[in-house]
Amino acid sequence: MGFLLAIVTALFFPGIILRVKSIASGRKGPGILQPWKNILLLLRKGSVFSTTTSFIFRMAPAIYLSTVICALMLLPFPGMPSYFGFDGDFVLFAYLLALGKFLFILGALDTGSSFEGMGANREALYSMLVEPAFFILFGTLALLTGHTSMQQIFESFQFTGHNSFIIGFIAVYLLVQIAMIENSRMPVDDPKTHLELTMIHEVMILDHSGFDLALVQIGTALKFAMYGLLIANFLVPVDAGQILVNGEKWLMTGEKGMMNHSGAGWMMVLQVGVYFLVQVVFAALIGLMESFRARKKLIRNPQFIVTLSSIALVAFILVLLITFKMIG
Amino acid sequence: MENFAILAPVILSFFILVVPPGARYIYTLAVTACIILLTSVPASVALLHPAGVPQTFIAGSFLGTIVFTLDSLSAFFILITNFTVLTGLLYSNGYLRSYRTTKTHAQFALHYFSYVWLHLSMLCVLMLRDGTAFLIAWELMAVSSFMLILFEAEKRTTLKTAVNYLIQMHVGLVLLIIGFLLAEAATGQFGFEGLQLYFASHANAPLFFLFFAGFAVKAGFVPFHTWLPEAHPAAPSHVSGVMSGVMIKMGIFGIVRLLTFIQSDAYTIGIIMMIIASLTGLYGIMMSIVQTDLKKLLAYSTIENVGIIGMGLGLGTLGMGAHNPALMILGFGGGLFHVLNHSLFKSLLFYAAGSVYQATHSRNIEQLGGLIHKMPRTAALFLFGSMAICALPPLNGFISEILIYYGLFAGMQSGLVFQTMSMMMTIMALALIGGFALFGFSKAFGLTFLGSQRSAIHVGENAITPGMLFPKLLIAAMILLIGLVPMLFLAPLMGMIGVQFQVDPAPVVVPLIHALSKISLMGVILILVAAAIFLVRNRVLKPEKIAYGPTWGCGYTAGTARQQYTATSYAANFAELANPVITKKVDYIEIHEDDIFPGRRSYALRPLDVFRTALGRITDYSMLALKKIARLQTGNIQHYILYAFVFMLIIFVLLYLNLL
User: Fold this and answer.
1) N or C: which end of chain A has fewer CB within 10 A?
2) Closest Cα to residue A132, out of A328, A305, A321, A315?
3) Cβ contact (<8 Å) for A106 and B541?
4) Among the listed residues A240, A312, A192, the one whose alpha carbon sits nearest the alpha carbon of residue A79
5) From the CA of A274, how many Å to the nearest CA of chain B?
6) Distance from CA of B572 to the nearest CA of A (A)
7) CA A105 to the chain's CA centroid
8) Nearest to A113 among B441, B511, B551 (CB)
9) Is the ipTM here above 0.85?
10) How far is CA A64 from CA A57, A174, A251, in A?
């Protein structure tokens, strides 16, 4: 369910970002589906390979895309049982993405270009620094909820009472930032930049063409949708009917009421609705952030990324306080 | 009869020195196969029936009766040792081929003899319980590996490194002897039985940490690791693979054996071990990133992996202290599983690095590059090993790391705030190590094998024989098998841990198997999806649609191989970030203002190991002090008579004052 919805989202996600950016800069902008039209065009085109490259370069985009697809399968959708989920699945999630990134970096190094080496190096450095933030965040959530599978974490997270709002806020903020870094977007990298020296992601795909380039772009679009789905898991009500019907009571006592069976269908409609809303807002947010924010100096990037880990640690200490471990 | 069977390999091994050169390798292989058969069969039985009484074999008497005791813990390590020693031997034939013109037959004979003895002594270390016998085996292990490192003794650095190695091993040995003696003084028994009695009745932590230090020298825990990054690169690659893959694990074995005896202080020991292990892991991988010597990079990554193993063991020990069976099972299980996994991928990486060395006669990444075109199979195997060591799914490293993650998350949710926080710190360390490893191995593989060659060294394409590829393929198959069907290996391991540490693994293992089956499923899906995409790609991308050209140089058309990213530049931004931890020495003369026509310049950056520098300083100071004392040695007979007289006078005075 989450998988299919994410794929649908990925269809319009890059388009929304582009459109928002165009409008913000006073242009009309291309249609929402224009990025996918480009991808379809690329899929049909031929390729040019550098003679320096080897089978690594040809394999890397395919493996990169397949890791993103597999990671996407692991994610739950609020209120739905996820087939692939298990205890500690977020570790697999993180390492799957790491596998894709590893091969992507090697693909860039395979060209032997100094610029692509530079991009690969930066990508490796930033993803290395962002890793702890993700693990601290999920460790914190595991501590708060007492579960380690993503589905159970998200499900019980929404029932931890008022305190979940502040943790949820931090978590969503962190995930937005992590998504921006992992997708090489604005605060650390600028996809529109015209100077190879300052590029990260764009410089790594300089030599990719045709089908392979399309694979990379599909992967990127899916990755956005994937993080959107992850964020949506915090925001989409697990048990919407209950919150609508018993919202008052739940807020007061944190007690789980009986679910209204006739409302089950409506609940799903509501969930999907909220989900798409979250994704659209996320995409628009990225567009706006990219329009009104300047890229950081490259030398400042590590500092910025490490800050995310410390914010995650703040959430951890908050959870320690909430669960009364600190005092009791 | 049984006596003979045990002694036979020892006697047979001596004939390696005298068999004709043509048959030497085959004979060594036969002896090793014989040893492996002799030990693997009882070891497999012991591992599959961990609850049984340990098997004992009496091997005649020499300074007292020698008894070999084989229990499930020894069995686990014996099987790992046998596998890696076998692959190492298979690989050695091709690797040593190029030395046939430069080395004499006697040198080859001695090398193979030492190799068999390293194997024998490791097996003895695993099975002997008596203190004297154990220490003799421990010493034999150090001496035989010393001989193996010395294979290229004509190089001055090799000689120096080997002597340094031998000295450090003896520092460890002294600590072990002191430990055994202390236990003997208290219990009257010199050996592991004595230790068991001692731990049952005395404070555990002090003696444990004495032994921990002794074993840590072998295992390479920081700050006892300084021999490791020197000795591994100096040794021939099959020896590095065996040393890194299994010999250092003898230190881990010693620690685990002691942990099974621990009765009190387990919580403290666990916490301290986790701290040491986290620091070891982080320091190891950080140093690994900045290395430019391919084998030194691998050696530092060995230290990192010892850190990960230590994290698991520390977690298990903490579980013992907290009476939390889940932590014990996951911690010890993860740690020991990583012992197996590391022995596989590290030996694979060392053998692949050895093939690179044989083809190029260089280990310097700055000079390499583009090797994937000349030696694609070695490159693919190195990539496979790198992926496994970075704990990437669906390979084996991921399985042991996720076990440790499980343990850490379980530990975080139980216990008090102190425990929760230390678990979080360890999670952070493990996540960072994961990220660093990715960085380090993208450098190791990417810059060695990809791009184009950075210097004009000749690449001997026929230096790699099929015989050198076969053992690597064997290891790669094992790595993939463990990655996809971990349950097969985990079940006996968990049974062994259950018996050794007296816990019931079932409540932890059942949900674990469920999770692991999901991981395997995901691994299979990943492979299938990737294969499907790749097939579609090949179908769509017909050969006539493909054009070839030079790498896009961003408008610059005269790019050369020297303009590529180098090992130093790849690690530069990282080294900058990790500045206080990683010290480096830069050999470069800045261009001055009055240099109107700057000449040829070179830039060399050498990472320094702070611990090695500190150790060097300590030895320098003690040498200085010893030199001052050496003034007493005048060579004058009157002075020596005076010393004797003063000595007697002091004794007399002390006796008179009743101080003696």
Assistant:
1) C
2) A305
3) no
4) A240
5) 29
6) 10
7) 19
8) B551
9) yes
10) 11, 24, 43
Distance from CA of A199 to the nearest CA of B (A): 12
C-alpha–C-alpha distance, residues B343 and B302, integer Å = 10
Provide mean pLDDT across the span B320-335.
Answer: 93
Residue of B nearest to A63 (CA): B530
Residue type, B192: F
Q: Which of B374, B508, B551 to mutate to test the interface with A (most CBs of A within 10 A)?
A: B551
b/e map of A33-60 (b: 16 or more CB within 10 Å)? eebbeebeebbeeebebbebbbebbbbb
Q: Are the beta carbons of A99 and B387 closer than 8 angstroms?
A: yes
**Predicted pLDDT at A270:** 83
Domain boundaries, given as residue ranges, for chain A: 2-320
Residue B343 above 90 pLDDT?
yes
* Count of beta carbons in the 10 Å neighbourhood of residue B30: 12
Q: What is the pLDDT of residues B463-503, one digit of tens each?
A: 788 888 999 999 999 999 999 999 999 999 999 999 999 89
Å from A326 to nearest chain B CA?
Answer: 6
Indicate the domain borders of chain B. Answer: 1-197, 265-540, 609-660
Q: Which residues of B touch A211 (CB under 8 A)?
A: 537, 540-541
Interface touch A106/B390, C-beta < 8 Å = no
Which chain A residues are Cβ-neighbours of B541 within 8 angstroms?
46-47, 210-211
Residue B587 phi, psi (nearest 5): -105, 100
Q: Which two tokens stand for residue A291?
A: 């329009």
> What type of residue sits at position A188?
V
Q: How confident is the model at residue A326 (pLDDT cuts 50, 70, 90)?
A: low
For the stretch A218-244, pLDDT in tens is 999 999 999 999 999 888 877 644 554
Residue pair A182/A97 in contact (Cβ under 8 Å)? The answer is: yes
What pLDDT shows up at residue B414?
Answer: 82
pLDDT at A258 over 50: no
CA angle A166, A171, A176 (to 5 degrees): 130
- Asked whether B214 and B195 are in contact (CB, 8 A), the reply is no
* Whether the predicted pLDDT of B3 surpasses 70: no
A226, A72 Cβ separation under 8 angstroms = yes
Query: Which of A48, A65, A112 has the CB atom closest to B564's CB atom?
Result: A112
DSSP of B345-380: HHHHHHHHHHHHHHHHS--BGGG---HHHH-HHHHH
pLDDT digit string, tens, across residues B540-598: 888 888 889 888 877 777 778 888 888 888 888 888 888 878 888 888 888 888 878 87
**Residue type, position B341, single letter:** N
Distance from C-alpha of B80 to C-alpha of B346, rounded to nearest angstrom: 13
**φ, ψ at B68 (rounded to 5°):** -95, 130
Supply the DSSP string of A233-257, one letter for each residue: HHHS-TTHHHHHHHHHHHHHH----
* Residue of chain A minimizing CA distance to B431: A132
- From CA A212, how far away is CA A71, in angstroms rounded? 20
CB A229 within 8 A of CB A5: yes
d(CA B358, CA B533): 37
Contacts of B507 in chain A (CB under 8 A): none
Give me chain A's average pLDDT, please: 85
> What is the average per-residue pLDDT within B109-135?
93
| pLDDT computed for residue A327 by the predictor | 52
In B, which residues are within 8 Å of A148 by CB distance?
Answer: 406, 409
pLDDT tens for each residue of A58-108: 999 999 999 999 999 999 888 777 778 888 899 999 999 999 999 999 999
- Residue in chain A closest to B437 (alpha carbons) equals A128
Instruction: Provide CB contacts within 8 A for B10, sequence distance 6+.
Output: B120
Cα of A59 to nearest chain B Cα, Å:
7
